[in-house]
Design goal:
Layout (H helix, E strand, L loop, with lengths): L6 H13 L2 H7 L5 H23 L11 H24 L2 H8 L2 H12 L6 H18 L1 H7 L4 H26 L6 H15 L9 H6 L1 H23 L4 H7 L2 H12 L7 H19 L4 E2 L5 E2 L2
Antiparallel strand pairs: 1-2
Helix pairs in contact: 1-12, 1-14, 3-10, 3-12, 4-5, 4-9, 4-10, 5-7, 5-9, 6-9, 6-13, 7-15, 10-12, 13-15
Length: 303
């Protein structure tokens, strides 16, 4: 990335905003079971990406070169994230699920110094703390704790949520690790194709009439969420330090709230607005962070 270039940040934020439409698509596709929903989302997404590469003459870019096993790993991780996230929603609540999914920046902060040799910075920690505080405001964790009965299914949901956050954070680290070998388009093609193969058993899990009635929305879901959003997200995050990228990804729940309010007419409450402000402030600090001064082997302090 060219020093001072904001293009990767614009791509990452735009991709995160488009990912925020997932709640809207899921709402309109609620007649489709979870497994088939993920399968057809990935299937139509990779078909759209393949056609795009053929039309633009970029098909040769998908040929695997070095670090091939990481393409398989990324496919498994991405599929795990999707499944674990939706299982958490099913057995707990959307609020719990989104809280668990977006613990990803904490895992990235822990893993990136060891794997990517990235430094931990003071401003980065501040941005992370502000963003997580904002997330707690949004999900209103006191109401969650007061309203949930602890049981075996609830605990399974929580475990799935923890897994979704860890796998999401791990995917960010893997993308950064292979960024010099593969373009974002190549990564998306292979991890989506691997996901489609893994999800094949769910292909027939929806009645034909239900599938036909929802076909146009399924295609749109795949094109927007699997192809467009993922291309922008991966292209952006592959050029930004993993810790910054994981914080900026928190724009997704903020955009999700916006779309829920404007499209689905979900009411806004004060805590939600406060939470969004905290997350946006954290994102601003992450974007404007300057070059660090080295302090120890992995840790650097911003001055």
């Amino acid at each position: 990335m060219n020093p001072g270039s904001k293009k990767p940040y614009v791509e990452l934020i735009t991709g995160s905003v488009l990912f925020g439409l997932m709640g809207v698509f899921v709402f309109y596709l609620q007649d489709i079971p979870t497994g088939p929903l993920i399968f057809y989302k990935q299937l139509f997404g990779i078909i759209a990406l393949f056609l795009f590469m053929v039309i633009t003459g970029k098909l040769s870019r998908i040929i695997p070169r070095k670090k091939k096993r990481y393409l398989l790993l990324l496919g498994i991780i991405n599929t795990t994230t999707l499944f674990a996230y939706l299982v958490c929603i099913r057995y707990t609540s959307f609020s719990v699920a989104i809280l668990m999914l977006y613990t990803a920046p904490m895992y990235v902060t822990l893993l990136s110094p060891m794997i990517l040799k990235e430094s931990i910075r003071r401003n980065g920690i501040i941005a992370l703390v502000l963003s997580l505080i904002g997330l707690l405001f949004i999900v209103d964790i006191n109401n969650i704790a007061a309203g949930q009965m602890i049981g075996s299914w609830y605990l399974i949901g929580v475990a799935a949520g923890i897994l979704s956050g860890f796998s999401f954070g791990s995917s960010i680290v893997v993308v950064r690790y292979v960024k010099d070998e593969y373009t974002g388009m190549t990564l998306i093609f292979w991890y989506t194709l691997i996901g489609v193969i893994l999800l094949l058993p769910f292909a027939g899990g929806v009645p034909v009439q239900v599938f036909a009635d929802n076909l146009s929305m399924l295609v749109l879901f795949g094109v927007v969420n699997t192809t467009m959003a993922a291309l922008l997200f991966i292209n952006g995050i592959s050029q930004i330090e993993a810790q910054k990228g994981s914080i900026l990804a928190l724009i997704e729940p903020v955009s999700g709230i916006f779309f829920d309010y404007t499209i689905l007419q979900t009411p806004l409450i004060a805590n939600t607005i406060i939470g969004c402000i905290f997350i946006l402030l954290g994102a601003y600090i992450a974007i404007t962070e300057k070059s660090p001064r080295r302090f120890g082997k992995y840790f650097r302090v911003q001055v």
